[in-house]
Amino acid sequence: MQKICPDPLIWNKIYVKLKRNWVENGQEGTHPPKPLVVDLWANSTDSEKAERWQQTLAWALEHQCYALVTKVEDEQMYSIAS
After folding, report:
1. Which letter, b or e, does each residue of 22-50 get, where b requires 16 or more Cβ atoms within 10 Å of its Cβ?
2. What's the predicted TM-score (pTM) here?
3. Whole-angstrom Cα distance, residue 9 to residue 30?
4. Which of 1, 46, 50, 66 qualifies as a cystine partner to 79, CB 3.0-4.6 A?
């Protein structure tokens, strides 16, 4: 199985945490990448989902809040057959 990104509900919760952290730190730089959830989930490819998740991980690392995205369990990930 290839892990693509967190399931939509989990991904949105992570986004809320990242955005809250960004606001609390004075909104320095760009805002966190928006998750592909709700309508965006249905209208995006697995490749687009994976790319956006990687952008989210990179953003979190750059903004010193990577710990907020590393606690995703395997069963909380959207995966596809390899």
Report:
1. beeeeeeeeebbebbbeeebeebeeeebb
2. 0.92
3. 23
4. 1
How many Å apart are CA 32 and CA 45, to the nearest integer?
A: 20
Alpha helices, H only, the chain: 8-24, 39-42, 46-62
Domain extent listing, the chain: 2-71
CA distances from 46 to 5, 27, 43, 80 (A): 9, 30, 10, 9
CA distance 60 to 2: 22
Q: What phi, psi does 36 have (nearest 5°)?
A: -90, 85
6 beta partners: 77
Short-list 47, 59, 45, CA closest to 14? 59
How many percent of the chain have pLDDT more than 70? 100
Each residue's pLDDT tens digit, 9-22: 999 999 999 999 99
